[in-house]
Amino acid sequence: MGRQPVCFIFAPMTRWENYMNAAAGIIDEYDGSLPLHHFLKSFFKARPHMGSRDRRRIQQLVYQFYRLGKWQEQMPVQERMLLGAFLCEQSSDALLNFFKPEWNERITDTVSDKLNFLELSWDAAEVFPFLSHLSEGITPGAFTLSYLQQPKLFIRARPGKKAAILRLLETAGVEYETIGEHTIALPNGIKTEQILPDKNTYEIQDLSSQETGQRFQPKTKERWWDCCAASGGKSILLHDTQPSIQLTVSDVRSSILENLRKRFADAGIKNYDARVLDLTKPVTGLRPFNGIILDAPCSGSGTWGRSPENLYYFSEKKIAEYAALQKQIAKHVTPLLEPGGRLVYITCSVFKEENEDAVAFLRNECGLEIEESGVIKGYDREADTMFVAVGRK
Ligand SMILES: C[S@@+](CC[C@H](N)C(=O)[O-])C[C@H]1O[C@@H](n2cnc3c(N)ncnc32)[C@H](O)[C@@H]1O
């Protein structure tokens, strides 16, 4: 007698299992050498069958995994993704309900109640393995817990444009919050370019970054230099504060200055001098300035709520490398400050080597009198954390 045919019945995988497998595959393949959003873009480009809803949820699972930093690192990846989802989400979630219905029932609990329920304790030093480098005034617990939330999207209404922007947001039914005179907080993921098509009316700029501008205080017709201008976010803020200034912008990357030119054109800024300069070398061919903005290249550690993969992959030795670069740049830039002129030093870092130590260098080695310095906390208001110092020659 022949063998009985064996009949296997495969239960098709649910959408949620597919999502978990795809997210786990991404985490397995990703090595931190590229920003995660670039990696995800190529990943999804190669898989055009995935719809936008699938992409969004898979992406979210991956980000939620990295939001835990190195905490509970030994946990199996799929379990840790669910832990991330449970701690980060605040409303009922079908995927979590499928795998962990008892967790989903508690989704609206506070993080501390969720941790109690799981009998886990939050370890700030595991989430953020660089605690010993933190600048003064940053509270490790609150700072690391803020990683569970993606910071909000902030825009800055350009002078005289706020009312028109708010009307468009209301027409589109977008929830918003206004902060101070010019800032509008928006939910993440909204397509600003569709709702606010006139690029001349606003700039996308984090709340703390906007607040650094309060230190610029340019006077009429002064000469200002934004020496690490990138695509010009701070320059546009400076120009909006005092449109009569004589503005010089520079960056080591010519490609980013092309973006600046486009952005300036959209913003209606025409009179400026733009040049490619490598500030690790002495600068020639520029006359001294009344004001300099040194928005230094840095670790970006105050913005990792938007790029939490850095919690996992950032290498500690880079802190010293950035600090050395910042000092080199400061050394070459400060001779170009007029006596009595002001230099505004900015980083989006939470590391003292890039902040307080740089200020000590500006004071002791560059001869500036420091008028103000400190962290601009963003972690307690869903924004980035930055550092700003003002030095006078
Ligand atoms: C933090 S970003 C500036 C952001 C910009 N100010 C803004 O508000 O959007 C720092 C910039 O410094 C530039 N940079 C890095 N190394 C430099 C160097 N050696 N000389 C001049 N600029 C440099 C980078 O290309 C980068 O655009």
From TrEMBL:
Residues 130-393 form the SAM-dependent MTase RsmB/NOP-type domain. PROSITE patterns: SAM_MT_RSMB_NOP. It comes from the Bacteria. One of its GO terms (biological process) is RNA methylation. InterPro entries: MeTrfase_RsmB-F_NOP2_cat, MeTrfase_RsmB-F_NOP2_dom, RCMT, SAM-dependent_MTases_sf. The active site is at C348 (nucleophile). Keywords: Methyltransferase, RNA-binding, S-adenosyl-L-methionine, Transferase. Pfam families: Methyltr_RsmB-F. GO terms for molecular function: RNA binding; RNA methyltransferase activity. S-adenosyl-L-methionine binds at D251, D278, D295. Belongs to the class I-like SAM-binding methyltransferase superfamily. RsmB/NOP family. This is RsmB/NOP family class I SAM-dependent RNA methyltransferase.
